[in-house]
Design goal:
Layout lengths: L2 E6 L2 E6 L1 H30 L12 E5 L8 H6 L4 E8 L3 E2 L3 H10 L3 E8 L5 H11 L10 E4 L11 H19 L4 E4 L1 H7 L1 H4 L3 E5 L14 E8 L8 E6 L8
Parallel strand pairs: 3-4, 4-6, 6-7, 7-8, 8-9, 9-10
Antiparallel strand pairs: 1-2, 3-11, 4-5, 10-11
Helix pairs in contact: 4-5
Length: about 250
């Protein structure tokens, strides 16, 4: 079965059953595709739920912004978040439209909160500090402000390292005078590789790397964003999941 014979000039010649071969190939291809899709689905399911072990990192929390929609903070706390860092301002004008609401609701749910500013490499430090100070009130019980440092397609220019460090120092001095405590700096791995911010700015660091502890930065990290694929019932889309090193974060 699978081959037939025809006579041509007195000789029997096999003729392949191409239809059967194609069907066999299609079945194998579909089975392989199903296995790949299953593996991808399991990986996404695992990534959406994975957090570092609580016995190693007792203090854990989330990163939230407007993309997470109308957050139900009671659900976030019930999922195991002890604190929340919430995006507040971006550059010299932009404000997260859900910041004030998220801050108030998270505190009402009994969570400690801290604000995040996205630093813009193309904007003056004093203008960015003014934007932050206008939007973020000083609170004694607030966690230290965090400065998110990443490349941005809206800013094609790349300042020199000396200029970036000088401007960043100015920005930090102004928002820290307002907040009454030192800030965290949170450089992404690519920007840190190019500018080595953590060796030029003496601040506590918050580093980012999914699933594996970060190995960049001049100093040991105090906080690690370990997974930005986490999905929680209380928020739309994905949230960042963070852990604090055993020494904790200083409020000073």
């Amino acid at each position: 079965m699978g081959a037939t014979f025809t006579r041509r000039k007195g000789r029997a010649k096999p003729r392949r059953n191409w239809r059967g071969a194609i069907l066999h190939w299609l079945r194998r291809t579909l089975a392989l595709a199903a296995l790949i899709l299953l593996a991808i689905g399991l990986a996404l399911w695992w990534a959406a739920r994975w957090t570092p072990p609580r016995e190693r990192y007792p203090l854990q929390g989330v990163t939230i912004d407007a993309d997470n929609g109308d957050v139900h903070w009671g659900s976030i706390k019930a999922a195991g978040a002890d604190f929340a860092y919430i995006f507040a301002t971006d550059g010299d004008r932009r404000v997260d439209p859900m910041y004030a609401r998220n801050m108030a609701a998270a505190r009402e749910a009994g969570m400690r909160t801290g604000p995040i500013h996205r630093y813009d490499l193309c904007r003056l430090a004093t203008d960015q500090a003014a934007n932050f100070i206008r939007q973020v009130p000083r609170r004694i019980d607030a966690l230290p402000a965090a400065v998110w440092l990443d490349y941005d397609n809206r800013c094609p220019d790349r300042p020199t390292r000396a200029l970036l460090l000088s401007e960043l120092a100015t920005f930090l001095a102004q928002i820290e005078a307002h907040m009454g405590k030192r800030s965290l700096i949170a450089p992404g791995p690519k920007l840190e590789a190019d500018y080595k911010v953590t060796s030029g700015i003496a601040r506590t660091t918050w580093l980012r790397r999914n699933f594996f502890t970060p190995d960049y930065g001049a100093h040991p990290w105090a906080m690690w964003q370990a997974n930005d694929y986490v999905r929680l019932s209380g928020a739309r889309g994905t949230v960042g999941w963070n852990v604090v090193r055993a020494e904790g974060l200083s409020d000073e």
